[in-house]
Amino acid sequence: MERNKAVAAVIIANGRFPRHPIPLSYIEEAEYIVCCDGAVNDFIAWGGMPDAIVGDCDSISEENKVRFAGILHPDSDQEINDLTKSVRFCVENGRNEIVIVGGTGKREDHTIGNISLLAEYEKVAKVVMVTDWGIFTPIHSSTEFKSYKGEQVSIFAIDPKALTTYNLLYPVHGRVLTNWWQGSLNESLGDLFRIEPTGRVIVFQVYR
Predict the structure, then answer these.
(1) Is residue 126 domain-shared with residue 183, that is, in the same domain?
(2) Residue 99 structural domain
(3) Residue 128 · residue 9 · CB < 8 Å
(4) Exposed site from 83, 134, 194, 201, fewest CB < 10 Å?
(5) What per-residue confidence (pLDDT) applies to 134?
(6) How far is CA 48 from CA 30, 144, 155, 179, 186, in A?
(7) Mean confidence (pLDDT) of the chain
(8) Is the domain of 104 the same as that of 158?
């Protein structure tokens, strides 16, 4: 998924509303915008207009519940969070290419949970999470990434299975990463790098 490319759906999660021009450009160019219900207040205050609002409706203001009753899609399932409900809503409505913004920046437990969930979403959709600092991409098979020399790259292994990297400053060859810090703070050596995992992996690329 190329940066700054219009996609089938942008989900605005209930983290900190983005400030960086890259996540904001995804919002501005989106074909379809889904707000987790807690995010809609900030999005409207920013000047946005969602196409759908999804969640358990415990965070949206009473005023906006009435105003947006026609696009409100309540989901009371307490076993999953509002971000997962929004991804499920997109997939069920044929929108399988998804950019998530606002998934980080507030409570750290919510941030870690939202990042880890990318590995689940990747089973059903082409998805990335775009933050004010960079882009998280979940993968489970050999994947080549567009890059640039000196780009900061971190690799977070969800499964304790061997992976190999190519064209990164600190190479990993058939190694099992047993803690998230072990694959962090690497660096691209050129215009491309490749990761060959045998399990689920989340890759973070820092903006130039």
Answers:
(1) no
(2) 9-133
(3) no
(4) 194
(5) 98
(6) 11, 34, 33, 39, 36
(7) 93
(8) no
Q: Which residues of 30-43 are buried (b: 16+ CB within 10 A; e: fewer)?
A: bebbbbbbbbbbbb
How far apart are the C-alpha atoms of 7 and 132, rounded to whole Å? Answer: 18
Q: How many residues does the chain have?
A: 208
**Dihedral angle, C-alpha 147, 148, 149, 154, nearest 10 °:** -40
Q: How confident is the model at residue 77 (pLDDT cuts 50, 70, 90)?
A: confident
pLDDT value for 1: 47
Q: Cβ(60)–Cβ(37) under 8 Å?
A: yes
For residue 4, pLDDT over 80 is answered with no
Burial of 170 (0-12, 13-18, 19+ CB in 10 A): exposed
Do 109 and 152 lie in a common domain? no
pLDDT-based confidence at residue 202 (cuts at 50, 70, 90): very high
Task: Mark whether 76 and 145 lie in a shared domain.
Answer: no
Helices 108-121 & 82-92 angle (0-180, nearest 10): 30
- The pTM score is 0.93
What is the average per-residue pLDDT within 42-56?
92
Number of domains in the chain: 2
Burial (0-12, 13-18, 19+ Cβ within 10 Å), 5 = exposed
Domain boundary among 133, 158, 184: 133
